[in-house]
C-alpha cells in the first residue's frame, strides 16, 4: 500500500512517563505504517526541558503559531517532589500554561462517546464540548484579610488624567476578607470569537452562561461582548449553517445541560469552566476518554489528551510489570491534528485515514476489547469483555484499522 503524503508538517510535542511510551507505540503501530508522517519534533519531556532551561517549550509555541497545527503528549508539571526526582535546575511553569499564554488560546474539552461506556446522565446521546475562558477573574485576583474595622474601596485611577473613580466595597465593623478581580475586553472578545468560530467549525449550537443578574457590570460585560461579537461577526454565518447562539443564566444552563441530549458547545467563564469541566469529564465516564484542544483567535490548533502522564502506571511499567493504560484520548489528539492539517492542506486521503483510525478505535472498545479503566465501568456483560494491556489494545485497534482500510 502506498503511504499517504503530507504537505505541511505538524508540530509534535513529545512528553513524559506512560504517555511518552504510548506516544511511541501510536506512531510506530498506527501512524507511520500508513502515513509519510511529517512533523517538526519538540521534546517537551522534563529532562530536555531542564536541559534547555524550558526554551524548548517556547520554541514549540512559536512553531505552533507558524505552522498552525500541533499535537502534544501529556507532560509533567514540576513540583517539589519532581525537582528531586529529576534533579531539576528549578521549578518550571506548566508547559500548558506557557502554550496558553503564548497563543492566547481557549481550551475546548470534548468527551469521546462509545457504546458500552455510558454517561451517568441517561439522556446524553452526543458529546458536550466545554470551552473555558482561561484568563483572569479569580485566577489573577488580589485578596486581603483585614484584621479590624475599616472601609474597603475600589479605586481606579485613569492613566492619562489621574482622575480617580471610587466605590465603596464594604464598611467593615470587624475582621473579614476582601478580593479584587478583573478581566479585559480584549481577552473576552478573543474568547467570544474563538467560541463562535469553533461552534461554526463543528456545526453545533453555542451556549454561553454567566451570573449577570447578580453581577450586572462584570458578568454583564461578558454577556454584552458575546452578544456584540455575535451580531457583528457571526449572526449571518450561524443562520446559514443552521445553528444557534443561546445565552442563559448559569443556573438555568446547568439544569438544561443535564436535561439535554448533548451535541453543543458550552462556553464558560474561568471558574465556572474549572468546576464544570471536572463534572462533565466524570459524568461522561472517564478522564481517559476526554480530548482537549487549544484554539487561538488567529486560528492555531493544538490537540492533546485531557489526562496527565499516568505516573502510577509508568512506575509499574518501568518495573517490567504489565499495565493497562488507555491510549484513546492520545490517539484522538493525533487524529484531530491530522484531520485539521489535512483540511487546511486539501488532502482528502488523510481526512479519511483520521476517520478510519477513530472508527477502528471505537469499534475495538465496542467489540469488548478494552483497557482496564474501561473494563471496570463498562455496561457490557462481563463475559463479552476482554481486558487488554497497553500494547495489546493498540494492536487490536491496528487489526480493525487494517480491516477498515481494505
Ligand atoms: P493523571 O496522569 O491524569 O492520572 C491520574 C489517574 O487517573 C491515574 O493514576 C489513573 O488511575 C487514571 N488515568 C488517567 N489517565 C489514564 C489513562 N490514559 N488510562 C488509564 N488510567 C488513567 O494525573 P496525575 O497522576 O495526577 O498526574 C501525573 C502527572 O501528569 C503530573 O506530573 C501532572 O503534572 C501531569 N499532568 C499533565 C497534564 C497535561 O500535560 N495536560 C494534565 C494533568 C496532569 P489509576 O492509577 O487508578 O489506574
Ligand atoms: Mg478543575
Characterization of this structure:
The chain has 406 residues and is α/β, with parallel strands linked by helices. It is 44% helix and 21% strand. The protein has 14 helices and 18 strands. A ten-stranded mixed β-sheet has the order 4-2-5-16-15-6-7-14-12-13, with helices on both faces. Helix 1 packs parallel to helix 14 (390-405), helix 6 (185-202) packs parallel to helix 7 (218-241) and helix 11 packs antiparallel against helix 12. The protein is globular. The mean pLDDT is 95. The chain binds NADP nicotinamide-adenine-dinucleotide phosphate (NAP) and magnesium ion.
What are the SSEs and their pairings?
Blueprint: E1 4-5, E2 10-14, H1 17-31, E3 35-36, E4 39-43, H2 46-51, H3 55-67, E5 69-72, H4 80-85, H5 95-103, E6 106-111, E7 128-132, E8 142-146, E9 150-157, E10 164-172, E11 176-180, H6 185-202, E12 205-209, H7 218-241, E13 245-247, H8 250-259, E14 264-268, H9 270-283, E15 290-295, E16 301-305, H10 311-318, H11 328-345, H12 348-366, E17 369-370, H13 372-375, E18 386-387, H14 390-405
Parallel strand pairs: 1-3, 2-4, 2-5, 5-16, 7-14, 12-13, 12-14, 17-18
Antiparallel strand pairs: 6-7, 6-15, 8-11, 9-10, 15-16
Magnesium ion (MG) is lined by residues 274, 277-278.
